[in-house]
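Continuing the batch. This is chain 6 of the set; chains 1 through 5 are on the previous pages. Same settings as before, nothing changed between runs. Recording input and output for traceability.
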Amino acid sequence: MRKSSIFLFVIFLFTGCFPFLRQTPHLSPHNNPEITAGEISDHVKFLAADALRGRYPGTPGSDKAVEYITRRWAADGILPAGENGYKQTFDFTNRIELGEDNSLIINNRTFAVGEDFIPLGFSANGDLTADAAFVGYGFTIDDSIQWNDYSGLDVTGKWVIIIRGGPDADNPHSPFDPHTPLRKKVLVARDHKAGGVLFVSQPEEEGGLIPLKFDYDFSGAGIPVIHLSSKTAKFLFSTAGKDLPAIIAALNRNQSPRSFLLGKTTISATVELVKNTTPVPNLIGLIPGNDPVLRDEYVIIGAHFDHLGLGGPGTNSTQSDTIAVHNGADDNASGVAGILEIGQKLAANRENLRRSVLLICFNAEEEGLLGSKFFVNNPTIDLEKVSAMINLDMIGRMTDSSLVIGGTGTSPIFEPLLNELNRGFNLSLKFNNEGYGPSDHAGFYTNDIPVLFFFTGIHRDYHKPSDDWDRINIFGEKLVADYVYDLVLYLSRLDEKPQFTAAGPKEPTVSRRSFKVTLGIIPAYGSQAEGLEIDGTRKAGPAEKAGLKKGDIIIAIDEKGIKNIYDYMYRLEELKPGQTIIVKIKRGDEILELPLEL
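Output for chain 6:
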């Protein structure tokens, strides 16, 4: 599961202590069609074993998880429903590496990659030999703050040197915060026709170079982007007779631009980054329904089976200074164990199903919901035939019978139905209406499918090596699995599909905080196209009125280029109600310019 502070429902989940079961449960033969605590424990213990090395996508440990899941499904009579048996395969970039040709020379002095400098993961490959300009924090702000670090400077084709962060880093409510992301600073530099960007750190950030990490949500900066060590940065400024710490101190004290050209300084650099890509699978199983009409509709149960591998710097580990097996027992061996047990019981009682049930174990969720994004963009079934999607993510740490269910506002039947089913369980249910969330149900919600997200809470072992099998509340998880079984059975037998209702935004709330306007589009979050591919438009919204369609790729707004979703969001921050803008799109082989009124 990808943690995010934007999802408010997690804040009430901390209860101070967790009564975990620590005994070793008896290993069962897995031939009991009922949902049992023993079988749940066995599944979690296998998937969260050290031998699987954290189930990072594309690794031998992940392959063992794939074999285990598919072997269980086959034994239970669950039919293969992927493109190759149970598998639906997609390409996963498991790491980005330095190529053989990475260099930095400042006035004939050579520096070492990995020690003196490092390209950033979203840097473009290429080389640039040019003069340099210092542009402070790299701001061009014209709203409640007036600050333009590029005023009076022509940086066309030059290296621009930019300080990370902002001038009041100690202020938790800094008005500069929306302008401090590295990606936005690179976008502004690109708008001013800079040839490349060199980031330098503030004195208190002298801990080291930014880890090299691939970002799936960022297709590339379009220009070389490099981070300099503090030692290299000091040398660079000394070539122009300047003292970098003193310059930063003055900027922070005066809070006004202080930009200049670095005379008699020539910088030559080459960046070569290599993406290592491997095919990895989602796993899809089918339990056919019996109704001659409704069996062509589906209830989907999903859970991701990947985790963080060995963690370490540059990963999503909350203990990123530690390289160790991150077993992911709760996140999300617990969800997979739930699917295996629920699927086994449904298959044994398939005569009670009217609609079919599709079981999906998603891959690469921790890297950005990649498996579920791939599925909704390349579905193996007609998504319009999906009755509901139920997502199980971190269901193994129940305390005080508490269960959080997200997405309850995505159909008017959900809350009364969930409360009615709970009469036999007496769970303490906590509902969150919004359909978008930090897990694999998000992509289904953006495609107008009712979703429910089952979750027993964040805990102190989240994304740490200590998230291990002996901390799972197996009897609490059995309650969740029994409850979800009854829910799936009920949904499969409804005469009509649950009505979909929009419940909250269809994109991360954090991306909307600075927006005064909206174009009314749904981004295609799994797209690897250069630009922003859209997955649809909102009815009667500005984009629909302007003629934008699903599959269009936005490549510029008012002649300002867009290479990815981050560029789009930063462009959107600049727009105001009442403006008419020109949106340049790629539609198939055509390039179109459409006027759009905000």
